[in-house]
């Protein structure tokens, strides 16, 4: 059986949104489309790559998606209606506790040891730390990075920031102090209020720690699942690919996120950074409390084992997939 792997129905929204009949209230703004899609004319490199991929996917016998039926029922149903093929939801695909180490999982060396990171988190109160990471392939502009640092400092919140050089520079190159407010990293380190991690950070360990209260994320699908599986709300800052669609779903359908801004072309102020952080991190009342409660509800759906029994819809979906293979 030929099968196509898909991280989420939303990953193919770039093309499928042109053909799938979305409900009238699902309006996409032009700014939510990646610049390559906005500039596509059918002959550009983006179109030449994706159109054959989608065409070949349509010839599959079925699709396997790294998601859970309960958390995006609309997207799954629209995908099934359009493809007229089986769609098996078998997520979230995350390593067991014994393999949580980022070095073991990716083969890349972390910018901080897991032990040092956990020790720092142990010093903080429950749900008091903001975790910031834009994934392995994305970064923000120099001006955005400056505003983010200024807003963080003014918010007074504790944070862990996995940081790389800004857009336009070598992401794996040397990080220059000029990209942050003067003395920022030293002040955060000395006060133990902020931990700046260069290169890579142990993301699963951070998200699963009781002190982590929210995740400022690029909304890549793996990061979304890792965050929500721990009941951690998300501050959205989509940067590429399908991430703006993921952010839209997190805000409008799931109610577990507030979008701060999107892509690297936008201007962002320290005042807005501070305001959004305060809204999401205040989980005792108001919108922050509502977002946290919904994130906890979704975490239950993402749990493969409940009360010692495999009750997840993903387990049933995987069993159906295996049965289909054996029967064919």
Automatic annotation (TrEMBL):
InterPro entries: UDP_glucos_trans, UDP_glycos_trans_CS. Gene3D superfamilies: Glycogen Phosphorylase B. The keyword Transferase applies. One of its GO terms (molecular function) is UDP-glucosyltransferase activity. Coiled coil: none annotated. Keywords: Glycosyltransferase, Transferase. Pfam families: UDPGT. Belongs to the UDP-glycosyltransferase family. PANTHER family: GLYCOSYLTRANSFERASE, UDP-GLYCOSYLTRANSFERASE 92A1-LIKE. This is Putative UDP-glucuronosyl/UDP-glucosyltransferase, UDP-glycosyltransferase family. It comes from Lupinus albus (White lupine).
């Amino acid at each position: 059986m030929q099968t196509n792997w898909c991280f989420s129905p939303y990953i193919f929204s770039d093309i499928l949104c042109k053909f799938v009949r979305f409900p009238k209230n699902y309006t996409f703004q032009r700014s939510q489309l990646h610049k390559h899609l906005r500039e596509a004319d059918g002959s550009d490199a983006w179109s030449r790559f994706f159109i054959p991929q989608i065409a070949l996917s349509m010839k599959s016998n079925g699709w396997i998606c790294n998601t859970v039926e309960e958390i995006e029922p609309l997207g799954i149903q629209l995908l099934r209606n359009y493809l007229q093929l089986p769609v098996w939801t078998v997520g979230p695909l995350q390593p067991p506790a014994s393999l949580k180490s980022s070095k073991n999982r990716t083969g890349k060396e972390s910018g901080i040891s897991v032990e040092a990171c956990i020790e720092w988190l142990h010093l903080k109160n429950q749900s008091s730390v903001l975790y910031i990471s834009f994934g392995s392939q994305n970064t923000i502009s120099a001006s955005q990075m400056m505003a983010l640092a200024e807003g963080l400092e003014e918010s007074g919140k504790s944070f862990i920031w996995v940081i790389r050089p800004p857009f336009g520079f070598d992401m794996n190159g040397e990080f220059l102090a000029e990209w942050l407010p003067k003395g920022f990293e030293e002040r955060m380190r000395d006060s133990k209020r902020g931990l700046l991690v260069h290169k890579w950070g142990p993301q699963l360990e951070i998200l699963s720690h009781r002190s982590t209260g929210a995740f400022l994320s690029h909304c890549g699908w793996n990061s979304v699942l890792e965050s929500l599986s721990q009941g951690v709300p998300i501050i959205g800052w989509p940067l590429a690919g399908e991430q703006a669609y993921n952010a839209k779903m997190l805000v409008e359908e799931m109610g577990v996120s507030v979008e701060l801004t999107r892509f690297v072309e936008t201007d962002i102020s320290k005042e807005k950074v501070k305001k959004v952080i305060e809204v999401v991190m205040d989980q005792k009342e108001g919108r922050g409390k509502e977002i946290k409660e919904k994130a906890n509800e979704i975490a239950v759906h993402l749990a493969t084992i409940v009360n010692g029994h495999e009750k997840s819809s993903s387990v049933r979906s995987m069993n159906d997939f295996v049965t289909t293979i054996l029967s064919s």
